[in-house]
Amino acid sequence: xxxxxxxxxxxxxxxxxxxxxxxxxxxxxxxxxxxxxxxxxxxxxxxxxxxxxxxxxxxxxxxxxxxxxxxxxxxxxxxxxxxxxxxxxxxxxxxxxxxxxxxxxxxxxxxxxxxxxxxxxxxxxxxxxxxxxxxxxxxxxxxxxxxxxxxxxxxxxxxxxxxxxxxxxxxxxxxxxxxxxxxxxxxxxxxxxxxxxxxxxxxxxxxxxxxxxxxxxxxxxxxxxxxxxxxxxxxxxxxxxxxxxxxxxxxxxxxxxxxxxxxxxxxxxxxxxxxxxxxxxxxxxxxxxxxxxxxxxxxxxxxxxxxxxxxxxxxxxxxxxxxxxxxxxxxxxxxxxxxxxxxxxxxxxxxxxxxxxxxxxxxxxxxxxxxxxxxxxxxxxxxxxxxxxxxxxxxxxxxxxxxxxxxxxxxxxxxxxxxxxxxxxxxxxxxxxxxxxxx
Length: 439
Ligand code: IMP
Hints:
Blueprint: E1 15-20, H1 28-35, E2 41-44, E3 53-57, E4 60-64, E5 77-80, E6 85-86, H2 88-100, E7 108-111, E8 115-116, H3 119-132, H4 144-152, H5 165-186, H6 194-208, E9 212-213, H7 215-224, E10 229-232, H8 256-261, E11 272-278, E12 281-283, H9 296-304, E13 317-319, E14 321-322, H10 323-333, E15 337-341, E16 351-360, E17 363-365, H11 372-377, E18 379-386, H12 403-416, E19 420-424, E20 432-434
Parallel strand pairs: 1-10, 1-11, 2-5, 2-10, 5-7, 6-8, 7-9, 11-15, 14-16, 15-19
Antiparallel strand pairs: 3-4, 12-13, 16-17, 16-18, 19-20
Bound molecules: inosinic acid.
């Protein structure tokens, strides 16, 4: 029997990772919300409440930061995986908001291995940004970087530690002493009170206790039952600490590989890796973005696409589709399929541009450089394509898209070497063209 005969991927139950392919804000929330209807489990695996996933469905419009976008389907178990960092106050208020708006959260579970964002992480995120002055990273100031730094430095406190108040105090006391030294001696800030932090986090622990589990067992059981599972990415590939525009990156891996680490699913479990690409480019925060349009067209894209950060409200930097970055993203994630979102935002433009290479110091390059000083010097090489100038938001069949829109999608598919199985033409669930169902 040939090796290929053993490839039963089409027949086994899907485990699909939904990955941001650019700098975040690609519209993953909508795609997960849509796919979650057929999934039995949705797992968030990276980041924290720096993420902002906008979901518009029959319950209304929601900005989710920590709760997986599958929460709107009662049959779907939602897991906050071990790779996520949790601000308990933010999570509790998100759960409260959902319940108040009629969404049941009894299907939500939090891995006991998730790390807690503590008050000193949030303070330090802000103080470190201020100390960087003109070189600030433009973080969301939610304490994400300092929490992951502590996880790596073995100074973290995990959500599971809240389940035993003595263990929690044993961890907290020396760590808070150390953090207070940094706050007071390095930054001349006020120290935090051990009693206050302890009491507050014990209360959070009591409130979150019903949700905290060893989620690995739940995932293992779902695999045994052969249930479809979705991994919900946060942020985007180009913000990955290894492959993104370092140091202008986030602190956990938004890649498909990060999906395995942040959930406990082994790599061979993934049957589909769906890259979510916005039909143009956007970035929030600092760092190089070769196709950024600083003037009229960039502003038009921002206004038409309401491109303002859903976590911080900051205006997003907008530009043309960067094919060099997109190809790089496909390569390091091994996308098997793609979703192209916000195609409708380009409806009014008579001409569109797609970046297919960079000019760097007089040479043409087609790879995404590791060094940001090189990337900052890269000038995009554009291919011009005609726009379609027809509204697309009400179109549901691919064949009904104007020819120029189909040509645009086909060109993106060619660049990323990946078929676009989903095309999104609006924020609502139904504003979607499904060319090949994932499940
Ligand atoms: P941090 O993750 O808050 O440390 O921010 C580091 C960088 O990642 C900043 O440029 C943020 O704007 C960016 N970032 C973090 N989360 C998101 C997201 O969900 N969407 C887009 N950008 C993000």
